[in-house]
Write a structure and sequence with these properties.
The protein is of the alpha/beta class. It has twelve helices and twelve strands.
């Protein structure tokens, strides 16, 4: 007997940004899964009118059997906004709305109502101005689900870059680089690559923190004192892992071909290369959660909201990858 279609939640993110625009673009094609948009239907209707997009908005019925989403319609879990939203105009008064959409999608994934959640871009600054401490989806989802060590992974086709630290000031990074962190992140990354990407015995490259991976201690001690011993223990436990290696040569194409993923020590060490290679098509993934979550690789792009110029490529790729990951996890 054929299994029913996967049901997936989509959160458009910041209502003044391009998230609603991108979400509406999803209605322009058929989908093999059922996409459930967690949003204010008034926002979607107003933005659709502004963009000239013809779409039928249907209210979500949790009791109905999941079915593939056809072009021309979106199914919506209605979450009301406290304030009307205008494209490009941030309003901290809508912070509770943004958090409510994430909470509904996350809880639906935790109860297996949804097979995955795909998130549009949020504005961290305006959420904080609205009275909610928020450093990013990764950290927020970890707190919601009780995950001890979430790992942020960016994917652009065959290139995968994970982060040992995420949204923290650069000055705080060296103090975070300790053996227990490296071991934990590598274990989460390894497990995620096996379970959600179906890569058997993934080979992982770990970047050094300092230039030239410390140059034998002449350019910093963290690589030799903290990273190298952690990697040695992981190798002793059967993990195929290389490093610490110099970041400036790690992304040479010939070297990349031998690795399932690269682990960077901080946000701007690895992500500029990946985003240069695949911006607008790359996908943000959170590993180490009890749910499947993917996201776009860009921000709210307030200047493009409501103009029709926003590119939905990353959101489309995020959905495709979420489908693949959820199917692997389903087996």
């Amino acid at each position: 007997m054929a299994r029913s279609a996967l049901r997936m939640a989509v959160t458009p993110g910041e209502p003044a940004g391009v998230g609603p625009d991108l979400t509406l673009h999803l209605s322009r094609q058929d989908w093999p899964v059922e996409l459930i948009v967690v949003a204010d239907p008034r926002l979607l209707a107003d933005r659709a009118k502004q963009l000239g997009i013809s779409v039928t908005l249907k209210t979500y019925d949790a009791t109905a059997e999941p079915r593939p989403s056809p072009a021309g319609e979106l199914i919506v879990v209605p979450i009301p906004m406290p304030k009307p939203a205008r494209a490009g105009m941030l309003d901290p008064g809508n912070t509770p709305y943004v958090i409510s959409t994430l909470t509904r999608a996350c809880s639906g994934c935790q109860s297996d109502e949804f097979a995955a959640m795909i998130t549009g871009p949020v504005h961290k600054g305006i959420i904080n101005q609205g009275g909610v401490e928020f450093t990013g989806h990764t950290e927020w989802l970890a707190n919601q689900t009780g995950a001890e060590r979430p790992v942020m992974l960016l994917v652009a086709e065959d290139m995968r870059v994970a982060l040992a630290t995420t949204h923290i000031p650069l000055a705080e990074v060296p103090a975070r680089i300790r053996p227990e962190l490296i071991e934990s992140v590598c274990q989460t990354l390894h497990h995620g690559l096996e379970r959600q990407f179906a890569i058997a015995n993934p080979r992982i490259a770990v970047l050094g923190l300092n230039p030239h991976a410390g140059e034998g201690g002449h350019l910093g001690c963290e690589d030799a004192e903290f990273i190298a011993p952690a990697l040695e223990r992981l190798r002793e436990n059967g993990m195929e892992i290389v490093g610490p290696i110099a970041a400036d040569t790690a992304f040479v194409p010939e070297r990349l071909q031998g690795f399932a993923a690269i682990l960077a020590m901080y946000h701007d060490q690895g992500l500029p290369v990946l985003k240069y290679a695949g911006f607008g098509r790359s996908v943000n993934v959170t590993l180490g959660l009890p749910i499947t979550r993917t996201s776009v690789d860009h921000g709210t792009a307030l200047d493009r909201a409501g103009t029709g110029e926003a590119d939905a490529g990353s959101l489309v790729e995020a959905i495709h990858l979420a489908v693949t990951m959820a199917e692997h996890a389903r087996r």
